[in-house]
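Database export, one record per block. Field names are fixed; values are copied verbatim from the stored entry.
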Amino acid sequence: MAVRWKPNVTVAAVIEQDGRFLLVEEHTADGLMLNTPAGHLDPGESPEEGCIRETLEETAHRFTPTALVGIYMARSRPKAEQGEDVTYMRFAFTGVLGAKEEGRALDEGIVRTLWMTPDEIRDSVTRHRSPLLLQCVEDYLAGQRHPLELIHIDESVRTPPPVRR
């Protein structure tokens, strides 16, 4: 039987304030890298809920998505010794950054949060964890916004249907 290909679904927050974007600096197998607050979608959650959770875990800030910036796909850049070839599908949201939860620890591997201008982001491409980071920021700057209602979540996501026999 052939192996079925499935992309890994991720969510990301594109958060801008005063001309700067909120990024995280995190430990990876390739060293310290930059990314928007992002992570994998968990079972039973919508992309919007996943983005809220990931932003809180990685920045200690509440986040309220207001629009979908876009849906993106990219393949990882595997190291020869790892040989892993993974495709990611990213749902990128923009919205309102809320209060910081003082005393909340950042997710494992996250070193710090930082605010960067678009030019600083463009100049740091070699440190981007994902090739989608810059594309999401550029699309945001171009005014790309889609209604959250574009993503339909069927009830079965929350309560899986019974197994057929």
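Remark 1: The helical segments are 47-59, 118-122, 132-141.
Remark 2: The radius of gyration is 17 Å.
End of record.
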